[in-house]
Amino acid sequence: MPLPFTSRKLAAAVALASAALVSAQASAAGFQVREQSAKTLANAFSNTAAGAEDVSFMAYNPAAIGNIDGNQIAGGVSYIDATFELHDAEASNVAGIPYTAGASGEGGESAWVPSFAAKTQLNDQWDLGLAIYSPYGLSTKYDEDWIGRYHAVETELTTIDIQPTLNYRATERLNLAVGLRAQYADATLSNALDMATIGGNPMAAGAANAMAEVKGDDWGYGYTLGALFQATERTRFGVSYRSEIDLTLDGDVDFSSDSAAGQQALAGAQLTNTFTNGGGKAELTTPANLNLGVYHQLTDRLALMANAEWTEWSSFDELTVEFNDNTPDSTTTENWDDTWAFSVGANYALTHQWTLRGGLGIDQTPVPDARHRTPRVPDADRRWASLGATYQPTENLGITAGYLRIFGDDVEMDQDATLTNENTSRGNLSGEYEVEADVFALSVDYRF
Description:
By secondary structure, this protein is mainly β. The protein has 4 helices and 20 strands. Strands 1-2-3-5-6-7-8-11-12-15-16-17-18-20 form a 14-stranded antiparallel beta barrel.
């Protein structure tokens, strides 16, 4: 069964502030989104904790705004084009009756991910900032008749963080910051239902299909902490922590069918108050993460940087849905692991107006094995390679473009209906996923 949510509208003020934010395809491990700055993307995120080059770095380390005197605004957008393609797929119901292969097993989607940040220096010791960005997101969509349709058709998750930030300049070398995170989450999920197997006739696998679609949203609240330490004139260290956020998702689910057999099967199930258009609730936690970084100005032209990021994906251990009708609770065991991502990068000042950027990185998947990999999040270990440039036409204006190529490992998926009762209605699904993505980013910052 899919996860049901409720559908509610954003408050008008938030809608105006973040109307440009759309669903994001996760290009990092799990369903994390790191594309909040073209400068960090062009350096393969190696400068997220310690770079502090402009106000957009507040999304990674809130203390970054203490490294910028005066007032500044920044805005940017990233375009993510991801590929999740399943090869050599096999599927059957719980009785082993094969499902026929339909159309493409390619589930990747493209998405635009905007971000915005601003800060003002209140006095010699205090800075105030505001960032609006998307820290988590996912968008996968398959054809409705593909071989894995009973596991997933569409999965879309969008989050928006609104982060007011206060920074304290403790000394000339040390900045300490705290930020409040108000997180809005919106989701759409759908998959097909094999009503014949569900209704106790597994020999008629796929003969009576229905669709389940859910839409909804919720608010949650957390915090972020950061420190930035200028150890020497040329070397800077950064550390930041972003808390987990708990979301309670109450909502609605809609069941439908385009075929007479599916409509008849649905009607029969609804007589027993199951598979009814109604509600339910589920708990979802977006994970905590920690960034550690160093930035070193090796020469007047060359800067080197490195970053390590830990994400507490183990908070996503299972997903349990409680329904308002007689449909039994549905539990999906995720059993995700905590992960690390490591990256290094360099900047080279070609002229006083042009800075060239590049970086390399590796990112662990939280998915522990093939049994826990699903078509909704077909995640894999990945490697990054990036390049970009910043053009400074004036002292106060900067324009940055970056490109990131993501190379994912080919990974196995083995959803087995006989190991637990979680896939009894979905059946078996196996194959090998190919994962890759291209990300393009553009940002502008202006100091005044």
